[in-house]
Design goal:
Order of helices and strands: HEHHEEH
Distance between the termini: 35 Å
Structural class: mainly alpha
Helix content: 55-70%
Shape: elongated
Radius of gyration: 21 Å
Number of helices: 4
């Protein structure tokens, strides 16, 4: 956090500084909470979200565009990573 001396600031300037600091803290809190709340989904859900086949999902894994997580014989994918694959398409 930045240390600032408050003296002779206008009300608008003080509001701007406080708004920036609060915004910065909220972003950090959101970042920390999303790292702890990673959701894993199965391949069927990945196929549904991306509207692609299972073969295409495994091609993404092979091309290192999508990470795979194993628990015993079950295969999972990070929901955040799957959503990140959608983002470049939607932004165009």
């Amino acid at each position: 956090m930045k240390t600032q001396v408050i003296s002779m600031l206008s009300e608008q300037e003080l509001r701007r500084i406080l708004k920036e600091e609060i915004s910065s803290l909220v972003k950090q809190i959101n970042k920390d909470s999303t790292e702890d709340d990673i959701q894993y989904i199965k391949i069927g859900e990945v196929c549904r979200i991306l509207t692609i086949s299972r073969v295409t999902v495994y091609q993404l894994v092979k091309n290192k565009e999508l990470d795979i997580y194993k628990s015993g014989r079950r295969t999972y994918f990070s929901k955040n990573q799957v959503r990140a694959l959608i983002s470049p398409i939607v932004k165009k």
